[in-house]
Design goal:
Blueprint lengths: L12 E5 L2 E5 L4 H14 L2 E4 L10 H14 L7 E7 L6 H9 L3 E6 L19 H10 L3 E3 L13 H16 L5 E3 L5 H9 L4 E5 L8 H5 L16 H11 L6 E3 L8 H4 L14 H11 L6 H6 L1 H6 L7 E6 L10 E3 L2 E3 L10 E4 L1
Parallel strand pairs: 2-3, 3-4, 4-5, 5-6, 6-7, 7-8, 8-9
Antiparallel strand pairs: 1-10, 10-13, 11-12
The structure holds (4S)-2,6-dioxohexahydropyrimidine-4-carboxylic acid and zinc ion (ZN).
Length: about 350
């Protein structure tokens, strides 16, 4: 940002380097077409999650999916999807080598089997993928982890903390050179763990985990559109996440985890996990950073730290945010064929808007 701009507290306009989203669910078919414009309007690149059915677990599947994403882009969009490989216990090291060599895979994703949406093909026993992790450490392909254990005896609110002890810490010790992203961090324990590690461990943080705690989901009635995994935790956790995101520490960066599901799949007896925040991710973040007195650190969190972790160039383009005198109207739903996709409601009025 140029030094001639007025102090941030007085600014009505914020010009940022164009952001990237380091964790995104784009889905496929009608849904893909409906949700992609919101991301492509704001973000230059995004790490695209591979949890389709069937999962994106081969080079060919990732190439074909990348092509479908490119075809669904609005005309003239410069958005670049960065593809990931879904790790299964059958994945071959050669698949990862080939995918990286051909410029298809930017990273590979570890879903503990049963941890979340479309994770059934994931990994039940981490030891079975040690040959893959050895290869990834060698070739420098980052490992993205959904950091929750699936043991039914472990309370849903403790699953991230237990994952650190039972899986992540042993993994870090066995593969110290492996670059790992602890995805969608939700707990103070997770923040403390990342802070205590080397630069080989980074973490994405979502806009919604900076805004909601578990009371927002459960007090006064169940709010299915605030249900995601890992689930939002106590307010002390939310506050720790806010401190991490606004600290300027380069190990923390934005991954929206925008995860759309049709309203009918959210508002039912057994609703799906996932929050669709792509349309208002940046206005929500600007407001959070403003509340924390850290607007001058927003650009690093959304536009620099992630690229630096992945060893990718920073974007050259810019994005302008305007602070308006009147709040934006409550977010309306996005339609995909017959389906309606509810946009994340932060529970407060949004004053920041993405401008041209
Ligand atoms: O809430 C979530 N939704 N968490 C995940 O890990 C997956 C995602 C989805 O794909 O819907
Ligand atoms: Zn996700």
């Amino acid at each position: 940002m140029s030094e001639s701009q007025p102090p941030i507290s007085a600014r009505k306009r914020l010009v940022l380097r164009r952001p990237d989203d380091w964790h995104l669910h784009l889905r496929d078919g009608e849904l893909l077409k409906a949700v992609l414009p919101a991301t492509a309007r704001v973000f230059e690149r995004a790490i695209v999650m591979p949890n389709l059915v069937p999962p994106v677990a081969t080079v060919d599947a990732a190439l074909a999916y990348r092509e479908r994403i490119r075809k669904a882009l609005p005309r003239g969009s410069a958005f670049t999807p960065l593809m990931t490989c879904y790790l299964t216990e059958e994945t071959l090291p050669e698949t990862l080598r080939e995918g990286q060599r051909r410029g298809v895979f930017t990273a590979a994703k570890l879903y503990p089997a049963g941890a979340t949406t479309n994770s059934a093909a994931g990994v039940s026993d981490i030891h079975r993928i040690h040959p893959l992790l050895t290869t990834m450490e060698k070739i420098g392909l980052p490992l993205l982890v959904h950091g929750e254990v699936v043991d039914p005896a472990v309370d849903i609110f403790d699953r991230e903390a237990v994952f650190i002890e039972a899986v992540l810490d042993p993994l870090r010790k066995q593969f110290p050179g492996l670059r790992i992203v602890f995805e969608h961090l939700t707990s103070a324990a997770g923040v403390a763990y990342v802070q205590a590690q080397s630069a080989h461990l980074g973490a994405t943080i979502t806009p919604h985990h900076l805004i909601i705690n578990r009371n927002h989901i459960l007090v006064g009635g169940i709010r299915p559109h605030l249900y995601c995994l890992p689930i939002a935790k106590r307010d002390a956790d939310r506050q720790a996440l806010r401190r991490a995101a606004t600290s300027g520490d380069p190990r923390f960066f934005l991954g929206t985890d925008s995860a759309p599901h049709p309203r009918s799949a959210k508002e039912c007896a057994c609703g799906c996990a996932g929050i669709f925040n792509a349309p208002n991710a940046l206005p929500c973040l600007a407001q959070v950073f403003e509340e924390e007195g850290a607007l001058d650190r927003l650009e690093a969190f959304v536009s620099a730290h992630g690229a630096q972790f992945y060893g990718l160039p920073l974007n050259k383009g810019q994005l302008t945010l305007h602070r308006q005198d009147r709040p934006a109207p409550a977010p309306s739903a996005v339609h995909a064929g017959q389906a309606s996709l509810q946009v994340f409601d932060p529970g407060f009025a949004l004053y920041w808007a993405v401008g041209d």
